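Appendix B, record 7
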Amino acid sequence: MRILLLCLALLLGACSPPAKFNATELRGIDWGNDFALTDHRGKPRRLSDFQGRAVVLFFGYTQCPDVCPTTMGNMRELMTALGPDAERVQVLFVTIDPERDTAQLLAQYVPAFHPSFLGLFGDAAATAAVAKEFKIYYHKQPGTTPSTYAMDHTAGSYVFDPRGRLRLYLRHGETPQHMAQDLKRLLAGE
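C-alpha cells (predicted):
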C-alpha cells in the first residue's frame, strides 16, 4: 500500500504545472516592444542593444524621495543575489523627468547604485512616446517653486528575457531574492 501511495504522489507531482514566477507574468501582450533613448554616456540605445541579456527596465527620476532610490537599492541587492549571473543582466533607469535629469546628473545618480546600471533619457516627446509604449503613468505635481516639483509615476519594473521578450512585471517592494529567483529562471531559458 505504501508503494502505491508513493507512486501516486510521484505521478501527481509530475503532472502539476511548473512553479510560477514571483513577479506578474506578461505573456502575449502587444506593447512594450522597444524604445529609442540615449544613455547617460551619450550613446543611442534600443532594447535590441541588450540581446542575450535579461533586462530590468524601471521608470523614475533622480529627485524622487522614496520609490526610486528604494527600487534602485533593491536592484543593487538583486545583482549581489544573482552572483555570477549578474553579468547577464542589464538594469536600465529611464527618467520621466527630462527637464531636470540631464545626462550628467544621470551619470552620477544611476551608476552610484551599481557600475553596470545605465540611465536613459530623451526629450519630452521621446519620454512621452516610451511611457505610452510601456503604459507608464507619470504626472508633474507642482512644488513651492517651479524647479521643486515632484513626479507621480508608475512604481514597478519590467523584465525582458535574453531574447528581448517582455516577460515580467516586478511590483514595487518585491524582494531582491524573489527577483533573483525569477531572473535566474529567465536566464535558464524558462
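Remarks on this record: The helical segments are 2-15, 67-82, 103-113, 124-133, 176-187. The chain has a mean pLDDT of 90.
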